[in-house]
Amino acid sequence: MFYQSSLLLVVSWFLFFVFCLRWTRSKKSPVDYPPAVPGLPVFGNLHQLGSLPHRSLRALAEKHGPVMVVRLGRLPTVVVSSPAAAQEVLKTRDLAFASRPDSSITDRLFYRSQELAFGKYGEAWRQMRRIGVLHLLSQKQVHSFRKVREEEAAALVARIRAAAGPVNLSDMMIDFTSDLICRVALGRTYADAKGGGSQLRALFGEFSEIMGLFPVRDCIPWLGWIDWLSGLDGRARKIGLELDALLEKVIAEHRHRRKLAAKIDANDMDLVDVLLSLGDRDDDASSSNISLTMDNIKGLILDMIIAGTDTTKATLEWAMVELIRRPEEMAKVQEEIRRVAGPRGEEIREEALKGMEQLKAVLKETLRLHPPGPLLLPRESMESTELQNYRIPKGTRLFINIWAIARDPALWDKAEEFLPERFLGDSDAGAATLDFRYLPFGAGRRSCPGAGFAMASLEVVLANLLYHFDWELPHGMSAEEMDMDEVFGLVVQKKSSVILQGRPFEA
């Protein structure tokens, strides 16, 4: 009897201890999973994304909160729409959210995602990040391509002068960006053959469009046959083969050049030269403690080409559209550019850009209203973690809706208006990047390593366009008539082309 009483007492105390321990831990642990948006069986919330997911997700966040879960078929996906949550993902818990989810499209087009943009987080990815930051896109490397940027900006100005009438700026800008990136990354343009420019434009445009799609097989595997039936598989295969053929041609040309030259001067090296010098040309073995396979090299080259073409073109388009719709802002920035540059009568040199604060503000405001990647690239949690006191299981996908954050009226005065002045001087908006209200290039481990090159390119070409021409809408068209519709893809772009009349300015 005494033994039974003692055993009961011990068990009671043990259960009490376990209860207290679990209660204490529960007080310290997250409250629950993020609120889930109600959806359909099997399909989840796919039908609610629409053609412009960043806008649809903002509308859902207004109802369900700044941290919510949408289900893309079988895939639970967290969507973040506040600076505080974005800061936690990109800074406080950056390592936990540093990986990328699986994607059949990126695996097919980016060499099984063995590159920088879509590669899984790990030692191989960290090595490529170091290569990107130190060897490909360092401040020194960006500066070394200054002459190329200036020459391509001058060539764009010459083409507009030669047109002597309304011009399709969209086509001219994609020519500018593709020529610039090809020269920097590949050593020369690949638009010099008959029809080469239009073919390259079409290829990059198709690539961007397909990268903005959600393959059914990723969301609902047993319905993967729909991707074949819809033609998505065929399109992806065709684009992949065409891009690989281009990269094979580029690498073969560079290897031939390296064989002919005993040593290539560092000042004459493009990004492919740098990558080939880091990797081994014959057996993909390591070189200088850096191991790069041919798939790594091709993937990194593709990263540079794709990241630098449509993003730059889209930002230039939106900047010109916003300025043409607000003549007073156009006048301010043109007065500054022409005053700082002086009566040169030639292309604007990059050293003159340092004093053009209004120009920089115009570009920052353009990127606030029209970030090229409004949802950034998706992340995946590498471990079970927390976010704003919610539980986030390992393997959860996550999007950050930087477009919604940058247009939140609670965070920005006159959030939907184009007001470059908000980025001038010591205004509160100047610290927006630090408080995670302004994230066009992301932040943390997965931030865009090409931000410096992108801004240098944008500044020099926009300065040249605004210095050399007074712009107006053609055929008496009014600003209110301009089509501002977007099209979603890897980069969100203006749906219709920008047609403007540029009248040469005489200093």
Automatic annotation (TrEMBL):
InterPro entries: Cyt_P450, Cyt_P450_CS. It comes from Zingiber officinale. This is Cytochrome P450 71A1. One of its GO terms (molecular function) is iron ion binding. Keywords: Heme, Iron, Metal-binding, Monooxygenase, Oxidoreductase. The lineage of its organism: Eukaryota, Viridiplantae, Streptophyta, Embryophyta, Tracheophyta. Belongs to the cytochrome P450 family.
